[in-house]
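cron nightly-structures :: item 1 of 1
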Amino acid sequence: MPAARGRYEPVMETVRQIVLVRRPQGVPQPDDFALAEAPMPQPGDGEILVKMRVGSVDPAIRGFLDDRPSYLPPVALGAPIAGMSLGEVVASNNPDYTAGTLVRAFATWSDHYVIGADALGLEVVSPQPGTDLHHYMGALGPVGLTAWVGLFAVGEAKPGETVLVSAAAGATGSTVGQIAKARGCKVVGLVGSAQKAEVIRDLGFDAAIDYRATPDIAAEIAKAAPEGIDVYFDNVGGETLEAVLPLMRLHGRVPVCGMVGQYNDADHPHGVTTLWQLVVNRIKMQGFITYDYPEVLERAQRELDGWVADGRLKPLANVRDGFEKLPEAFIDLMSGRTIGKTIVRI
């Protein structure tokens, strides 16, 4: 396919796509997806054609597969799955994104796709020498930016405070814990296995709690953080949120990144009975989307790059190879079988 800086001349080829053929019931299954072909998309005025290099596999995608309102429209049956992607511009009708430029944006699970300058999260990626490209979809990409925005812009974490992180061995949680430590916080992580507990201890967490191994998660958290919790970075919601709220300190903050504990059963959400604690301790609880905070992203990227360079942030990635591995990787993620950021290299 020719690369061009100016007007793109169409080439009749096909693209591979991962499409939704059945809405999942509970944990997604292989038969919910299919590998399909479609005509090569052609960029229009101001648009670019991008070849996927790295596909991001995120829990939030599960919400787009149900036919219900979310912060983005649901994926239609027969349409490619929506998700973050990092790719190379192979043809351009936009002088700001010339052929050969690496970009990341919210796109689709297609090995080639067309986006405009208004695409959600569209950014130019400039990899640092010696850093694997896939990390720019993880700790040095949307995952790291989400962790930074949630912890510092929303959660307002300060040196000396105690930070609790759920899903702490996951992509965002493992990053949150490390950057909180880099800022001088005490960090407690909640995980779902002894193996994951060992992983986050090795990353420098002050305490790791395997919630599956304890009948009283609140008691274990209180033991690990007797001073109380200043910031609870919530990735799971549900029963865990219910247990944590009474342990928050006065003027505590709860940045709500996700509620993965309910994604596979959105029709039966857990009713949190401890919300009165928001009033008792004047707690701020706020959901957020990373790209609602464009004014801090440059600083966030600079600090993330610096922490990786000096070794205080160790990117944790679960990497697969091959476009067709996207559904398998997503199913493993939603089944709780992964550690770190789940990524597929194309």
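cron nightly-structures :: done
Confidence is low (pLDDT under 50) at residues 1-10.
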